[in-house]
């Protein structure tokens, strides 16, 4: 079957989709967006977390056909999403994606180093994960970033217990979560300073 | 495999009538795992996420008509006063991501004894609104679970909503898992006090082939509360009554040993949860009653 | 170009400031950090190639059976299927592989020995087609009896897992179903026992833990025009894989070009091969690129686990609290194939007494062959299981003597110069007593943190968490301590070396160093540290880390806490050799301009050649000019020797790592649910090359230890030897709500034998975390608790 939907503000079309395919598979294998990760494919690890119409979900549990006409934000679009939130004010509804016109004018950034990503524009939560040492193997990172970014959107001043609850659907095996806590606290603090 | 995408409830019913083997999918929590892991290859997937009605709820004087696909997150956030037991149960469901997408309809459709909503629905005394092209019927929750992962739905029926009486008294919900978040129930317990009828209702999950009520325990407690005039005098429930209630709840279990826990532990834990939730709800009832009296 | 993301085979540039900032000792940031947070880092499962096929493995549904027949006809007939291969299709006579003993069939030959053993492989144009095809392969099994424990494995008439063994361990084991045996005998235990005023014994059971790395096994094999194959893979040791793959494929090693792709964690689980050979076989058979990605279910069958163990310990002490003796027997279940079992036996045995001075020791350790899942390397490697037992014993013994548990340990703690039971002196700092003192001195977390300003308890802070099982009822706090000893690097005479190629040249008017090793970056941060070392040694700001591949010599495995020591040592060594060459070039060009070129000790700093007095002699840009200076050199740590097979005596280890933990738990004693409130750790790291990474390693290792303490266990049915919980639904690892704050106190006492004085960091915290949590639960409940993980059943008498 064919599925049309919007990913990171850009209209996408996936063809010859098997009806049992997940959104995760379509993103990774058909749309060239492997940032969402395939760690468990049973909704237990959160590494495939994306925002579907603004709401964090496990993309492994979304059937591809269910996203017809919907809007998806993946880790690849997180920096853009955060920038637009800053520019247009808070947006928890998912309706703040790129407009069709804007999408048509989309250009790859020219000054980005293709090897290290240096020069890449990052969302505050992404920068905080790097700075706080919250990334080790990095496989859980994309899902955690999408979940943590959404939490800070809803709750700019979370307590530690709030952070833990919001991220309780994202497993990490490397860090013991301490540096992830540090990163979210750091992003919240920087967000607070910026206001 | 065919993917059916009805745009309305009527289309969904028609599709289910035409393809009774079609597997409804909304939040995907159960169905997608079975597909991802090659446990199931349905002929038709019936996507219900385009049926907006299923995502809405109506709060009436007496009861809440909760659309089958209202996500658990919405129940937690919006229906805590009306459906406190179900709201607590919703909070124990898996992870924030799952709660954002899954709803009560999925729990009921799968009818796994481990579904988190069941004990709360049993305790509250819900009715399942099932519909087909042939018509609509309300199935009392007590009659809904018919076996391990089996329910009372006919092949052409879909779950439209759940009707749950607005709480007339305190409700509680506890679930034991071997992790502090994101865990399938080893066993679970729901308790609702119904001061308007001077009854209590219970629900037990993961401790029998289906979700069950502890009817003997309810009857015992109803009698004990009536006998002691507890509903009126608001006295503390005596430890011996609480213990007897807990023992009867444990006795209502018919659990198995499995990889998540032993039968013996499940019985024990249901007893502990029964005693604790009784204490919490009763303390809350006494507190509310006292305050009400005070204000009056 | 395989992968649409960060292209492999192109280098990663690491720029850090304008001077020689970002050297060792600084918490420089990961060079791969930006790619990892943007989703652009190419993990092995992200590989993609035009026209590629998907591989699928058919695995045995039973643990022990003869294969009567395999019928692949229906599978082959399925449209979209390009190849189906079984044992009979293997290209050469080499049809087994293995880390040390080549006992593992590439595809089952007439018999399967464990649940989930690979039987056939399929390549098709879509993963669903490949799955459907695999399901159509008809395998007829005739079940055989299973051996699942020591009694059934070593019975005189036990069915043998491997008949006609020819490996080098078979001569010294009592039964062919024992992989390896290592006794450690020192002093006279019988005489020492007579001196003991107190004797305590215990039998301990350690469950089977899974590495549960988040990135499942995966990779892409691309057939090459020369008849060889290019393999993009997540592994811990490229060259070890290559050595095992090449003979099976019948190709010379230089025709198999391996490139490390992104690795989603490892923890020992990628030490053995998984899908490597299968992907190559299918690629060579079909002439098309083949990608294989395990799902989580398959991952549980696709790698070895931590050995479950039964440990029987007897310790004695005098009434003034001095340890008299230790008699111990450790039985490890190695499962169906050898994997790393022999080395795990050596570790468990030689470190079985822990970081304590005990003169009279008799330890016997074996690993079994059974029909259970194969077990091998996992973080802590044998030392973990032993630590669980000896630390439980220390508490019991302290109680028997009537001493404080920490003081008892400190009284018996080893220090520099102490002898291990192997007779080897610990010839670097061993601050065991100090670590215990530090961890005990940390402030305790406040009581009853679940009490909030309002009326309701915050259930997130209570045992049971969001499940709302207690509002404080039945909750009791407990505190426990433990300390452990882990060896660093490969032991027992293994030639443990690494290779580094370092080049220095001027690029864009700036001196740049390029570091090329085959080290597997699995998340530990080796790439960060290599750049730091190059900056420190070569005085450059910009370091390029070349992708790890087999175009450079072996780096050894990313395991045994060894990479910073050994490959870090190799990078340092090659940098030093490059520096010498650069200085020679400088002397040739500029020596006549300044006498210091001949007389002073010269350094490279901030892009310049400077004297040790700080005088600048030349810019590196001018010294190098158009030249590039490159060195590839192997570097080894000092040699070790095998343990004597009868007595276990010998200079077996090169270095040790010590960590101590204090666990604070709150237990719902009625429901048997545990919440760990805090896990404080003190660890000696010799020298923290990157403090941020060091702390991250300690916290991560600590949390894996917490997991095996309270929730993690692969459950194997003792009747069928089948795995009962191969999923993240039923194999639980700690979530962020299960993990406490982990304050870390890092001690830096240099080991003079090691580069910069550093010590391996990654494993030690995994050892002591588990027994500390168990001790805290015992403290809260008063129960003996001899098995880990502790389940609610064990705390409520409902097992």
UniProtKB/TrEMBL annotation, chain A:
It comes from the Bacteria. Signal peptide: none annotated. Keywords: 2Fe-2S, Iron, Iron-sulfur, Metal-binding, Oxidoreductase. Residues 1-78 form the 2Fe-2S ferredoxin-type domain. The keyword Zinc does not apply. One of its GO terms (molecular function) is oxidoreductase activity. InterPro entries: 2Fe-2S-bd, 2Fe-2S-bd_dom_sf, 2Fe-2S_ferredoxin-like_sf, 2Fe-2S_ferredoxin-type, 2Fe2S_fd_BS, Beta-grasp_dom_sf, Diverse_Oxidoreductases. SUPFAM superfamilies: 2Fe-2S ferredoxin-like, CO dehydrogenase ISP C-domain like. The keyword Transferase does not apply. Pfam families: Fer2, Fer2_2. Gene3D superfamilies: 3.10.20.30, [2Fe-2S]-binding domain. This is Oxidoreductase. It comes from Streptomyces lacrimifluminis.
Automatic annotation (TrEMBL), chain B:
This is Carbon monoxide dehydrogenase. SMART domains: CO_deh_flav_C (SM01092). It holds the Pfam family CO_deh_flav_C. Residues 1-169 form the FAD-binding PCMH-type domain. InterPro entries: CO_DH_flav_C (IPR005107), CO_DH_flav_C_dom_sf (IPR036683), Diverse_Substr_Oxidored (IPR051312), FAD-bd_PCMH (IPR016166), FAD-bd_PCMH-like_sf (IPR036318), FAD-bd_PCMH_sub1 (IPR016167), FAD-bd_PCMH_sub2 (IPR016169), Mopterin_DH_FAD-bd (IPR002346). The lineage of its organism: Bacteria, Bacillati, Actinomycetota, Actinomycetes, Kitasatosporales. Gene3D superfamilies: 3.30.465.10, CO dehydrogenase flavoprotein, C-terminal domain, Uridine Diphospho-n-acetylenolpyruvylglucosamine Reductase, domain 2. GO terms for molecular function: FAD binding; oxidoreductase activity. It comes from Streptomyces lacrimifluminis. The keyword Oxidoreductase applies.
UniProtKB/TrEMBL annotation, chain C:
One of its GO terms (molecular function) is iron ion binding. InterPro entries: Ald_Oxase/Xan_DH_a/b, Ald_Oxase/Xan_DH_a/b_sf, Ald_Oxase/xanthine_DH-like, AldOxase/xan_DH_MoCoBD1, AldOxase/xan_DH_MoCoBD2, AldOxase/xan_DH_Mopterin-bd_sf. Pfam families: Ald_Xan_dh_C, MoCoBD_1, MoCoBD_2. It comes from the Bacteria. Gene3D superfamilies: Aldehyde oxidase/xanthine dehydrogenase, a/b hammerhead, Aldehyde oxidase/xanthine dehydrogenase, molybdopterin binding domain. Residues 1-31 are annotated as: Disordered. SMART domains: Ald_Xan_dh_C. Residues 38-145 form the Aldehyde oxidase/xanthine dehydrogenase a/b hammerhead domain. PANTHER family: XANTHINE DEHYDROGENASE, XANTHINE DEHYDROGENASE SUBUNIT D-RELATED. This is Oxidoreductase.
